[in-house]
Design a protein that fits this description.
By secondary structure, the protein is an alpha/beta fold. 42% of the residues lie in helices and 13% in strands. A seven-stranded mixed β-sheet has the order 1-7-6-2-5-3-4, sandwiched between helices. It starts with 8 loop residues before the first helix and ends with a helix.
């Protein structure tokens, strides 16, 4: 990416100031959640997410219409690239997230997502799985959407990591649908970009700086048909996981440069 394709220092600083003001206002909004009914709370979550995306010049483009929200609550699953994923999803499907415990200690954002209904999971302990499954099931029974990333870790977004099946059990136990969502990030030239990825040793502040340095980020969101819906019940979490994984992986790879490179390599080797 050439220098001219980055924002100016003034633009970056302006965005960070606007983000700080958004954080301050959002923390006050989230503190009032206990006094809101479910519809009001969902509207607040959508508004919070849309405001953040606007500040960071992130434009979300749904590739097709989302299924009728009358079938909510859903267990929503998506590929995981960056902390922005949370707000991209929340702009359409408000709900609580399942997240790693370290997010709880993040400055400001940790408090925000905690008050927003996030359930934290210890990746190192299998004993932690059943309580989380029970918490997801209870939330679904209460009419709340729950969103999680079955890869468990972030990637650069050009492919997907293997999905884990355990938490899909909650949708089966609660008899609720699963909504697979594929997320793809592009730069202002319309090229897939790993610049937004929150991977490896990247810190939250470094990730934020990378994002405000991009003039514009476009996100394509693909919604699948609902799984485990009334007309297609699935009683095996591994089958449910595989169907969600197949849809998301196919969309992520559909225009990935990794796919093009592999295809070129195959053509060369076959000559």
């Amino acid at each position: 990416m050439t220098k001219s394709q980055y924002t100016s220092l003034l633009t970056r600083c302006t965005r960070i100031i606007r983000l700080a003001l958004w954080l301050r206002k959002t923390i006050r909004r989230v503190k009032r959640f206990n006094s809101l009914n479910a519809t009001e709370r969902n509207n607040e979550l959508v508004s919070i997410a849309q405001n953040l995306l606007h500040i960071l010049h992130v434009k979300v483009k749904p590739e097709q219409a989302m299924p009728d929200t009358a079938s909510m609550p859903w267990l929503t699953v998506a590929n995981h690239v960056t902390w922005l994923d949370i707000f991209v999803l929340m702009a359409y499907i408000p709900g609580g997230f399942i997240a790693k415990q370290s997010i709880k200690s993040w400055p400001v954002l940790g408090k925000l997502v905690t008050n927003g209904g996030t359930v934290y999971i210890n990746r190192q302990s299998r004993q932690d799985i059943n309580p989380v499954i029970n918490a997801i099931e209870q939330a679904l029974h209460e009419g709340k959407n729950v969103l999680f990333f079955p890869e468990a870790y972030t990637s650069e977004g050009l492919t997907t990591l293997p999905f884990k099946a355990a938490l899909f059990q909650a949708a089966i136990d609660a008899d609720r649908p699963v909504m697979p969502v594929a997320i793809r990030y592009y730069d202002m030239q319309g090229q897939r970009t790993p610049k937004v990825a929150f991977v490896g040793k990247t810190t939250l502040l470094r990730s934020l700086w990378n994002i405000v340095s991009l003039p514009e980020i476009m996100v394509k969101v693909d919604f699948a048909a609902l799984l485990n819906a009334d007309d297609n019940k699935i009683t095996d979490r591994f089958k449910l996981k595989t169907q969600a994984e197949d849809f998301i992986q196919a969309r992520v790879l559909s225009d990935s440069p990794i796919t093009s490179i592999n295809a070129s390599a195959d053509n060369i080797s076959s000559q």
